[in-house]
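Thread: "does anyone have the structure for this chain?"

Original post by V.I.:
We have the sequence but no experimental structure in hand. Need at least a predicted one for the grant figures.
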Amino acid sequence: MCRQLTMITQNEYRQAILICEHDTIHLVNNHTTILLSRHAFYQLDGMLRSRCLMSGAKGVACKTTPEGEVELWIGNGAFRLQPVELFAL
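Reply from O.Q.:
Generated one for you, tokens below.
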């Protein structure tokens, strides 16, 4: 359990990035928190900055569902997001 969280950045939309004593990145969006290792966070950041989400970066990938949602895969886990939610991330 993380007890020492250091704020890296936050905005007026209740979104924040924090880091804990375990060197884990905490991405907070309202009431949802995504925990990522530093390595996974850098992979995610690189993928989002590349503007080529379908490139299949090792361990991180995005796929579009038939319903128009985006699945953000990090390792063996996925987040299903609306395009506007992915943009917010």
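V.I.: this helps a lot. The CA atoms of residues 38 and 48 lie 15 Å apart.
O.Q.: and The chain has a mean pLDDT of 80.
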